[in-house]
Structures are given as C-alpha cells and as structure tokens.
Specification:
single chain; alpha+beta; Gyrase A, domain 2; Elongation Factor Tu (Ef-tu), domain 3; 3 domains; 6-stranded antiparallel beta barrel; 16 strands
C-alpha cells in the first residue's frame, strides 16, 4: 500500500521534523501568546492544543501555528518557512514580560501519524493533536536522537511512510490550506475561511480591530475554497479562475487526485458559479 493510500484508508507516518518548534517559558507566557495570536491561550490546560494565526497591526496573517500547552511551557509548532519570523515577531514584543523563547527545532524531531486508523499507532514523546493533511491523527515530538527508534517502531507496527507529495495531495483533497502556499501575508483572516483559528470573545490581541471590523461589516471580496477541475494536469499557482468569461480568482495549490480522477485545488474566488481554470470546467467542492 502506498503512503497516499495509507493516509486515506488506514494510517501513514510523515517526517515533519523540518517544521519549527519554539518553546515558551516564564510566568507571563500565556498572557503574551494570548495577546499575540487569534485564539484563546489563557484558558488552555496541559495537554491541549489549538490552531492560531499571528497577525500584524493591519490584520494581515504573518504566520500560523499549532500551540501546545504543557505543565511548565507552551510549544509553538510552525511551518518551516515561518520559524524565524515567529521567533523574532514574539521577541520584539517581550519588554518587561517574564517570557523566554527557545528555538528547539534542531534538538528535536517531529513525526506525524494520520489516517482513519491513526489511533492504533504507537506513541512517544510529546503528543500534539494536529493534522497536516486534514485526516485524523497526531504529531509526536521527541529528542532528535530518538527519531530513528520511533520510526522503526512505526514500521514494525506496519505503518507505511507517506512522502511530502503524497501528504500534499491528501491535504488538497481535504481542502486544508497551508501557510506559504494558500495563505500568505496578503490575506486577512476571513478570506481564508479558517475561523477555527479565531476566538471571537477572547479580548484584545494584535490585529483584532481589523478582524472585528470585517466580521461586523460582512464584506469579504474573495475567499478560499476547495474546487475540482476536470483535467489531468494541475494548474500552476497563480493560474486564473473564471466565472463564465469573467476572471473571478486564482489557484493557490493544485494536485492530481488518483482517488477522485480529477485535479483538486484551492483557490481564492469572488464568484462560485460556472467556474473554469486553464480552459477546463471546475466546480466548488463541499469538504
């Protein structure tokens, strides 16, 4: 069974060690992260994890992260490309706070297990409820020297490895955006439709004014949607999407779906009817 099939039908493991991992300690750690992200950090209990955005003062999305709450620290799990940006962004706002940031990426490894049967997989280290592909699963963070032993345990349990392209295909099939591909600093929160990253009653945080203004006015000119395109060739990022003869948006990521026999994609759209991309018919998908 391929890694792609395992992700869809059973379970597969993925090496996510390239992701950034930042340890946050100090008495003020929750207060700082609460003021710097879109989700509710102060109410988190040990063992819980949440997905959140970091915004700038204009409400643009600087990065996303999974935030895990341990007894004595918070752990930020970021995209590889935003690791340094998040560290420097937070460090800039630590003035008189009792908060210490430590980049532990190089000292640790991260293995994700996802799929319908992921719960049966062996576990080790810090276990975070988070998904790369949108399938059920979790991530394990262990000391770097324990990585190979963990992978051997997963292999011995009959769990296949899924490579980056296989994981990306399943992610796009499930309509899950990735920061750096589908979400960038050009977007505001409501355009992404990832409102599970936002707690609307948490109080003040950087960028909140813009988020609340958009929510109150309900004016979002384009939003991110999953679509299917009746072709065998995935369009490149930036490819225009049309509604009839009118340009209505653009592709952010696309992949051939072996299971669905079409190209699946994510796209920012202003209109949702009579769609086409690259000359091929397209339609909205309800994930």
């Amino acid at each position: 069974m391929s890694g792609y099939e395992a992700l869809r039908q059973s379970a597969a493991w993925m090496d996510a060690s390239s992701r950034g991992r930042i340890r946050v300690t100090g008495e003020d750690r929750k207060r700082l992260l609460h003021a710097m992200t879109t989700n509710h950090i102060e109410q988190m209990q040990p063992g819980e994890s949440v997905y959140a955005f970091f915004l700038n003062s204009q409400g643009r999305i600087l990065a996303d992260a999974w935030i895990y709450c341990a007894e004595d620290h918070l752990l930020l799990d970021t995209e590889p490309e935003t690791r340094r940006k998040v560290f420097e962004h937070l460090d800039r706002y630590i003035i008189a706070d009792d908060v210490t940031l430590e980049d532990i990426t190089e000292q640790t490894a991260e293995i994700a297990v996802e799929g319908p049967q992921a719960e049966q997989a062996p576990r080790s280290g810090v276990v975070i409820r988070a998904s790369i592909t949108g399938q059920p699963g979790f991530r394990m963070i262990v000391p770097a020297e324990e990585k190979e032993a963990l992978i051997e345990r997963l292999r011995a349990a009959g769990i296949a490895e899924a490579g980056p392209e296989e994981a990306r295909t399943v992610r796009i099939e499930n309509g899950v955006p990735r920061y750096g591909e589908d979400i960038t600093e050009s977007q505001i929160v409501h355009e992404t439709r990832q409102l599970h990253a936002v707690h609307f009653n948490k109080g003040c945080y950087l960028g909140q004014e813009i988020v609340e203004r958009v929510r109150a006015r309900g004016q979002v000119h384009r939003m991110l949607y999953p679509i299917r395109i009746e072709t065998q060739t995935p369009p490149a990022a930036g490819e225009k999407v049309f509604s009839g003869v009118e340009e209505c948006g653009f592709i952010t990521s696309a992949a051939w779906s072996p299971a669905q026999g079409c190209v699946r994609a994510l796209a920012y759209l202003r209109k949702l009817e009579n769609l086409s991309a690259g000359g091929a018919p397209a339609q909205l998908v309800q994930n």
